[in-house]
User: Fold these one by one.
Assistant:
Number 1:
Amino acid sequence: MPWKESSPVTERERFIDAYMRREETVAELSRRFGISRKTGYKWIGRYMAGTELTDRSRRPRRSPNAVAQDMEDFIVAARKVHTRWGPQKLREALVRTNPGVVFPSAGTFALIFTRNGLVRPRRRRRLRTPPSTQPFGHITGPNSLWCVDFKGDFDVGRRRCYPLTITDAYSRYLICCVGLSSTRSGPVRKVFERVFREFGMPEAIRSDNGSPFASNAPRGLSRLSAWWAQLGIRHERITPGKPQQNGRHERMHLTLKQETAMPPQRTMRSQQRAFDHFRKEYNVDRPHAALGQRVPADYYQPSACAAPEPIWGKDFQYDPDFATSRLDRLGRLRWAEWRVKISDALANTLVGLKWCSARRWDVYFGPNFIGAMEHPSSPSKRTVFIPVASAVGRSS
C-alpha cells in the first residue's frame, strides 16, 4: 500500500520520527504506516545518508540513443533555413542531400524542434469539406494536364505584381512562376510561348474563369484560349466558385505566398529572383508527401509534343460542305452579303459556316458550334449573331 497521497513527504518524516524514538520495530512501523519493510528501510537509509525524503527522478543517468549535440545543432540550423518545413519533410530533404549520414526519426526531429523553440502553435480552424479529386481522374502522366492561375496580386515597391504560375498536375512540377505587371492577354501569351518552346505542349490546360483565360464570348473563349485551341490543347475551366477543383495548384500557391511574399521584395527584379529560387527549391529540393516524399523533378519530363512553327498554330480544317471566312482584327465577319460582329476573342481566326436556311448560317470555331447568323425578315434591320451560352461565371 503506497504512502498517503495527501503528503507523502510528511508521512515519511513522521515515519523517521517514530523510528528515532525506538519504541517500535521497523516491521511494526511499516505495518502502521501501510508500507513494506523494504520501503521502510529504504527511507531510513536515505535519512541516515543525509539525503532528502522527496521522490527521485526516474530518468536514466545516460541514454544510449540520445542525439549527439552536433547532430541536433545541424538539424536546428536546417530548420531555421526552412522554417515552414515539417519534421518528415525536413528529414527526407536532409537524407537526400547527405547520403551516408544516419539521421534520427521524424519523431525525434519533432522533439528537437519543440525543445529548441522552433514550433509555432497553429491557429485552430473550423472543419471544411475536403477538396474533390474528381477533376484529376484522367491524369495519366506528365503533361496530360497543366494548371494555370494568377496568385492574386500585391505591391512590390511602387508597382503591382501579378504572379503567373503553371504547374504539371501529375508531378506537381512548377513549370513557371513569373511576376507580371497586369493580367492582360498579350504578356501572358508571351510567357506561354516561351514555356511551350522550353517544355513542349500539354494535352490540356485547366484554369479558372477569369481573364485572360476566359471571357463572356461564345463558349467562354478568350484570345488566349482560342490560341490554345488552334494549337490542339484542350481547355478545361473549373466550376465558378469551386477552387478546390484546382486544389493541387491552390495548395502550391499557399506555399508560394509564405515563402516569397511575406513580406514582398522591394523591386520586381528581386521579387522575380525570389520566385526563381522558390521554383528551384520546390521542384528539386522540397519533398512532397503526396509524392511519397519524393520531389517533382523525379516525376516530370518535358512533353514529346513540341511547339509548332509558327507558334500561333494552324487554322482549323472544316468539312467540304462548310464555307469558311476569316474574321478581321475586331472579330467581325465579312462574307458575301453578310456583315456581323462575332467576337473580339476570335479576331483574325478562320471560322466555318454551315448553311441552315436562306436566312441562317451556323458558325463554328473548329469543332465548336459558337452561334448562328440570321438575316432579319425586315430589310431595315441588320444581320444579327446569336451566340451560344458562354457558360462563364464569376472568376474563382
Number 2:
Amino acid sequence: MTGAATSDRLRAAIDELVSVVEAGHSARLTAYLTTMARFHRYSLGNVLLIGMRCPHATHVAGFRAWQRLGRRVRRGERGIRIMAPIVRRKAADHEDEERVVAFKTVCVFDVSQTDGKPLPELGHVAGDPGEHVERLKVLVSDCGIELEYANLAVGVDGWSSGGRIGVRRGLPPAEEFSVLVHELAHELLHRDDRDSRRRAVRETEAEAVAFVVCEAVGLETNQAAADYIQLYDGNRDTLLASLDRIQRTARKIIGGLTETEASSPAAGEPLALIVKRPAA
C-alpha cells in the first residue's frame, strides 16, 4: 500500500471516529455510567482487601445495592469484608458538614456471586490480531519501554508511566492489542507533557490512536473507542484539535507492525502499510 493510500486510510478511520463521537453519548454508555454511579468508590485499603479475598473481582457492591441493580446474591455466597466509614453530619456556617467518626465492617459481593439482570458494558474490540500482538511487543521494546503483565486493580486494564507499561494479564488478544496500543500512545505522546495536558485530551488522543491502529489490522472496533473517549469527557473538538498528533503517532505504530523496512522511514519518505486481516 502506498504512502498516499495509507494517509487516506488514516483519514477515513479518524473521520469514522469523529462521526461517532459527534453523535453524542450512546445508550450503552449512558446505561454504563448510570450503573457505575451506584457502585461505591473504595479506598486503597479496601481495594487491597477485595483483591486478597477475591482476586477475580471486577464489580463489588453491598447486598441491597445489588438488589437495586436488578441482581441478587446467590444463597450461600460469602461476603468480602471491608471497612466502611461512619459519617456524622453537623451544621457549619449554614451548610451541612460531614465528618468520619469511626469505621465498621461491612460485606460486599462481587458480580460473579450474583444472578439477575446483566450489567451494561462499554463496547469491546473484537477479532484476531494474529501476529501483530507479538510485533507490537517488539515495537514497545525497541522504543526502550519496559512491558509487564499483572493482575491489575479492579476496572484497570492497563497503565503507563515513565517508560513502563502494564497490561492486565489474561485479556482476550484483541483487547490486549488495543490496550497495549493505547498505553504505547501515551508513552509516545505524553511521557514528557503528561502534567500539561488535561486528562480528557490525553485519553482522547491515546484511544483515537488505538482506534486507528486496530482498524488498520482488521479488528472490529464497533463503538468501543467512542464510548471510551466520551467516558473521559472527550468530544469532537478535542479529537479534531489533536488530529495531527494522532495521525503521526498512529502512522509510527502502524509502521512498526509492517513486514518491510518501511517501519522506520526517513523523514518525508512514504510509509508502506502491510497488514494481514483475519480470515472471514
Number 3:
Amino acid sequence: MTDLDVGVWRVVRADGPDWVARWFPARRTVEAVTGDAEILRYLAALDFPAERCATAEPVSILDGRPVLVTGWAQPVPREQRRDAIRAAGGIARLGALLGRLHTLPPGDGAIARPGGGWHHVADGLPAAEIAAVSRMLAEAGHRFSDGERAAYEELCGQVAALDAAEGLPEAFTHPDFALPNVVATQDDMILVDWAGAGRGPRVWSLAFLLFAEGARDLRRVKLVLAGYRQHVMLTGEELDRLAAIARARPLVLAAWAVSVGRLAPSVAVARSAQLRELTDSVAATALAALAGQ
C-alpha cells in the first residue's frame, strides 16, 4: 500500500488489477459512501471518464469508518503528465467534460442527492460547506488573542456573507472538478474523488475551475469556457454572480486552515483581499470571452 493522500492509498494486488482505497472519516456515513459507488456506476453506464468501482460490492467498513475501493487508473509518469493532458484535449477538454457532466440526464437515489459541497467538511449543497466552516471557525474562536481577534472576526463575517449560488440552475456535479483530481493516462483524462457529488448549482463547480485555472494564467479561463459552452450557456444571473461565487471555495479553504490552526486569521484576511482582485479579473475575462463568442 502506498499513501496517495490523507486516508487514500494505492493497493498493489498480486491477484488482480491494483485498487485505490479511500477510508473516509467517521463523519461520512456508509450510506453516503454507498451513494458515491452508485454515482460511479451511473457514470460508467454513461461512459463518462471517471474512476470505476473495483468490485461489485466496493463499500466496506473498517473500525467504524466506510471504505470505498476503485480501480487504479494508471497515470503516465509525472514528467509526461502535461503532455498527456494536452494530448487528451487540455484545459478546453476539461471544461467540456464539466459541461457534459452538467447535461447528464437526471436520475434518482444518490444521483439526485444534494451535492457540490466539499466533502472534507460537509456533504450536501455548497451552503452546507459554508455553514460547516462557519461552525468550525466559531468553535476555534477562543484560540485567538487580541492581536488576531479583529482579523478573526472579519474573517467570520466574510465567510458568513459568501455566495453559495443558491437559487441558480442546478445539475449533477462534482464538488472539486479541477486538475488535481484528474489522472492523466496514456489515453484520456480520468476524473477522480467523487465523494460529495450530487445535484447542486452548476456554476459553483464551474466558478472554482475558472478560479483554479485563472490563478495560473487568465488565458486559461477562455480555454475552460471554450469547452464548457459546447454544452451549457450560463444565465445572466449566473454571470452576474460569477465573481462572488468564484471567491467562495478559496475563502472556505483559507477559513478551514484557520480553524485547524494552519493559518493565522490576519494572513487569511490579507489573502482574501488578493482573492477578490483575482476573482474579479477571472469573471471579467469570462464575460469578455462570452461576449466575443
